[in-house]
Amino acid sequence: MRKGFKICCGLSLLLVIIVLVVLIIVFFTVLKPKQPEVFAHPAHLTHIKVGFFPAFELNATLALIVTINNRNYGSFKYNNGTAYVYYRGIEIAETAIDADNIPARSKHNISTNVDVTADKMVFVPSFWDDVGAGLFNFSSSTTLHGKASLLKIFKIKAVAETNCNISILFLQQRIDSNCYSKFKL
Fold first, then answer.
1. With contact defined as beta carbons under 8 Å apart, do 116 and 60 qualify?
2. Adjacent-strand bridge partners of 132
3. Distance CA 50, CA 117 (A)
4. pLDDT digits (tens, 9 = 90+) for 81-137
5. Helix, strand, coil share of the chain (percent; to 5)
6. Which of 78, 75, 76, 70 has the alpha carbon at shortest distance from 34?
7. Residues forming beta bridges with residue 18, ordered by sequence position
8. Dihedrals φ, ψ of 4, to 5°?
9. What is the pLDDT of residue 53?
């Protein structure tokens, strides 16, 4: 009787150890968190107004669309956030980003419009040089706080950061942009 109990406990312990090893291997290979791929679609101007007299005026609305390819087996639900636009290190615009959910193993678009005015830009010393060149270089940053969820069981706090470099050739009404992202658990 005692011998059978010891064999049963030993086999049960061996089975639990095998299951734990398999789960750990699966977690670190298949379920390992991967950086999401972020694609910035070429931003476009939905409105631009340039005036030189009686005072310099520059108003532009940038339509930004970013596609996030979530390659993970877990979803990412993020809270309301804010995207900031900088000109030569000075914040010139901000826009709200509504809370949303990026499902597991899918693509998701985040779109927003940013209104840029020259009010803060004219005080930057190289502003008039950029006007003469017809080129403005901006940067934008967005940080989204939320939770990554794996199989709707495990929930981990996560932060997604996206930084973009945006060049506006305002006379040609053309925009070039490059974005980089990081995902931290």
1. yes
2. none
3. 10
4. 888 889 988 898 888 888 999 898 899 888 888 888 777 787 888 888 988 888 888
5. 20, 55, 25
6. 70
7. none
8. -65, -40
9. 74
Rounded CA separation 63/67 (Å)? 13
**Token pair belonging to 4:** 């059978």
In sequence order, the 6+-apart residues with CB closer than 8 A to the CB of 112 are 63, 64, 83, 95, 96, 97
CA 114, CA 59: separation in Å to the nearest integer?
11
Please indicate, yes or no, whether the overall pTM of this predicted structure exceeds 0.85. no
Q: Closest Cα partner for 141 from 67, 84, 58, 59?
A: 84
Collapsed DSSP state (helix, strand, coil) of residue 151: coil
Q: 3-state class of 21 per DSSP?
A: helix
DSSP 8-state secondary structure symbol assigned to residue 171: T
